[in-house]
Task: inverse folding
């Protein structure tokens, strides 16, 4: 499966480069994650400016993404301030940049769920061995696959720098970080075994990590049914704007539509309908968020997830215990 994941994500890539973070609200900025041709993705990152410094949610994977976040915070004149980094989950497109930030920002405090520790010993350790095997036979890889493998392996060789300082576990807690009033929650058994969501109370911005992803739900390490329950948990929070792990910022109403569309996707997967018909329905439901040029890629991803996940005998493998 790991090899499939690597090959699939290499196959599906489009545009690349980290621009500067964009303003969403007073003291609220986001840096959209890129998904360049021949490269693995970066997740979206969110920056919140507080009286004592910064809160950053997710650090990206590629150095260009992470460096753009660091440059922005310094340019805004709070280079020596406190920095609290919250990782929504352990996937490398959301936490790989921790290593670079640790090097460049003394006093950094990283908050994440304990699932990071389990993943570093399990899923990510297996992925690291897979990458080492791939790199031993570079002649079997094209240039972009080799480059992607080297980037991820370099991150995993600094695994200790990816670990959090503080482990979050409460389903919901209020916390003030860098002077910013936040509500954070951890959901187990949804997308990664330990998904952290964060609500910025002042701007009513919910940072959802991969509990919301576009152009399709990224089911690689997910419990599909647990994910549906997690969307209900998010819906109970008083947000007006939601930043997903991948894809555009959504209004509350758009999130509601995403949630219903996800439910229809699971219903279709459980029915006798073919994967093509289910993909048609999803593409219709999510049409506002998927550019026409991106539709073939979204369809290919859904085909992959139907085969490897939604219709696989092992589809519930992430439902009982964290990966
Ligand atoms: Zn992601």
Result:
């Amino acid at each position: 499966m790991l090899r499939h994941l690597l090959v699939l994500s290499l196959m599906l890539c489009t545009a690349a480069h980290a621009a500067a973070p964009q303003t969403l609200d007073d003291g609220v900025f986001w840096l959209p994650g890129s998904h360049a041709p021949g490269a693995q993705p970066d997740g979206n990152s969110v920056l919140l400016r507080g009286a004592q410094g910064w809160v950053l949610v997710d650090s990206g994977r590629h150095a260009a993404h992470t460096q753009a976040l660091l440059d922005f915070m310094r340019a805004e004149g709070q280079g020596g301030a406190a920095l609290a980094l919250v990782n929504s989950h352990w996937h490398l497109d959301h936490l790989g940049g921790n290593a670079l930030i640790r090097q460049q920002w003394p006093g950094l405090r990283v908050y994440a769920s304990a699932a990071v520790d389990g993943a570093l010993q399990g899923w990510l350790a297996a992925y690291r061995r897979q990458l080492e095997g791939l790199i031993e036979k570079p002649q079997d890889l094209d240039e972009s696959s080799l480059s992607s493998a080297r980037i991820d392996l370099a991150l995993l060789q600094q695994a200790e720098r990816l670990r959090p300082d503080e482990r979050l576990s409460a389903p919901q807690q209020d916390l003030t970080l860098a002077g910013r009033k936040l509500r954070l929650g951890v959901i187990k058994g949804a997308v990664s075994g330990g998904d952290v969501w964060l609500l910025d109370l002042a701007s009513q911005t919910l940072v959802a990590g991969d509990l919301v992803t576009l152009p399709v739900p990224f089911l690689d390490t997910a419990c599909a049914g647990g994910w549906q329950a997690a969307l209900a948990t998010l819906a109970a929070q008083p947000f007006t704007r939601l930043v997903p792990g991948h894809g555009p910022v959504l209004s509350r109403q758009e999130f509601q539509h995403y949630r219903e569309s996800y439910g229809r996707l699971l219903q279709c997967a459980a029915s006798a309908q073919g994967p093509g018909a289910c993909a048609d329905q999803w593409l219709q439901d999510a049409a506002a968020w998927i550019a026409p040029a991106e539709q073939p890629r979204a369809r290919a991803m859904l085909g992959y997830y139907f085969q490897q996940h939604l219709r696989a005998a092992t589809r519930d493998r992430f439902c009982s215990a964290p990966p």
